[in-house]
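Protocol step 6 of 9: fold each sequence in the batch and record its structure tokens directly after the sequence line. For illustration, a two-sequence batch is reproduced in full.

Sequence one:
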Amino acid sequence: MHPILFKLGSITIYTYGVFVFLGLILGFFFAQREACRLRIDVNKFTDIIFWTALTAFAGARLLYVIIEYRWFLERPLEIVFSRSGFVFLGGIIFGLIPLYLLTKKHKISFLKMADCIAIGLPLGHSLGRLGCFFYGCCYGRSTSSFIGVLFPSNSAAGMLGEKVIPTQLISSFFLFLIFLTLFFLRKYKRFSGQLFVWYLWLYGFFRFIIELFRGDDRGTFWGFSPAQIISVILILIGTYIFLKKRRSSLNSARCIL
């Protein structure tokens, strides 16, 4: 764990922030590359991504505040000034709204844009999870196995005083695999939105499973963590898009016959 990358006088550069920044840059690069391949106007693409990302970060923060509302009721100023506290799935939920509205405004296919974002998102998220590891958040359950990591006592993961499962590193690895999978399959998709569907399925399924090994308590609803519930919703959204597209293609085939 190495939360502070370096210092420049009174300025502190945090490792978590650096990895999140790198994730944004690389994620945007690959998403833009896919947009160019699909002949989407670069200026329109950049405008949509900017506002979508801004709203997504706000949504990620809002969901964290909702989940940890008891802590924030005692320290209301931390809502604004705390450096930590983002829920990635909140970013997806709130980011989809401006994405849909802005694609309508610019007369661009929502599903085409979603495919572009599906390429860059897991790569950026993968780097962000490395930042989580260096910061000591989003940790796993206590373990005595060889994969266990003992974090410093001044971190959230180290307060337990025991080795924990490095769910951050596991998540980073599988997110990178999702990126590689989608990047390889992008030329073989059969309809707009297929990469987005695959992303929702792959990430939704993985996130549901990795939650079983998380050790940071974020509350439960009906025995499931908030992330697991949202993961199921993402899988259902992907299934809905897939079935709708499949029904549309079958209807088109009938018309031809």
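Sequence two, same batch, same settings:
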Amino acid sequence: MRAAVLSAAGLDNLSVVELPDPEPGQGEVLVRVRAATLNYRDLLTVEGGYGSRQKTEGLIPVSDGAGEVLAVGAGVTRFKPGDHVVANFFQNWLAGEPTEHAMHSGLGGLLDGMACEMRVLPEHGLAHTPAHLEHAEAAALPCAALTAWSAVIDQGGVKPGDVVLTQGSGGVSVFALQFAKMAGADVIATSSSDTKLERLKSLGADHLINYGDTPEWARAARAAVGGRGLDLVVEVGGAGTLEQSVKAVRLGGAIALIGVLSGANHEFRLPLVVTRKIRLEGVTCGSYEQFEAMLRAIAQNGMKPPLDDTRFGLDELPAAFAHMREGRHFGKIVIEI
């Protein structure tokens, strides 16, 4: 089989090589990978950004992938050849609170990922693809969608009538918008691009803010909903946006901390958090139990993940990462395998 393999940290050290075809063992499933999608985390991993918390030499990168079952090992009962499947992000986080063991089972980090033609995974690390989705759409779900689901539904507890703010048009933010609308919330979407804001509006955003024109966007966000403040901010910016998020949420509101796209270190006034009883909660993807719940909701609502217009082949993976770094994409960047 062909696979993208990292010889050392850095995009220049990523190449496609021939490897022996894998075979499934006891309790394992052999998947013909048809599509993968990129997360910002994948770019950081290729660049060695996770240090000792990742494998570098010999790593097959990219956490998210989907395809069809080629063969199953002894004892497998939930899958058969021909089934369309999608891999869960944390292979060993099955339910409940995360453990050290579970958090060390992320694909494309300490474990090999999905940038390959074939992949053997344990039965408990796969789920059936919703019937209305193609492989590329299913491949968009394991990391970004589940992170957004955790932030909005499981940890955020969003309900009809709530107000949620999403930042930008990356995968997590777009999924958060879709899930918030699915839950009956009003959504304020921010972006520095009016073109992208229009696309976010087409996905259901109720209020739009161009943060390039309005860098102090907290006041505009509160004004958009009559000054009451927001129930939840899905925070992917990090240092550059956290202060505005704190100012935007209502008394007792929540901020789901996910990304650090604008920096990792920031000083802001802690009394604002304390005196307004704001909940700051980190979100790191989710369990297999959450993944299956999300997939059921997606199937029931016929939800479609937005995909970027530009697609790449496995040999074009470095170019796909460069496309991600440029930030001109909308939705998930697809690698067709």
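Proceed to step 7 once all outputs are recorded. Observation for sequence two: The chain has eleven helices and 15 strands.
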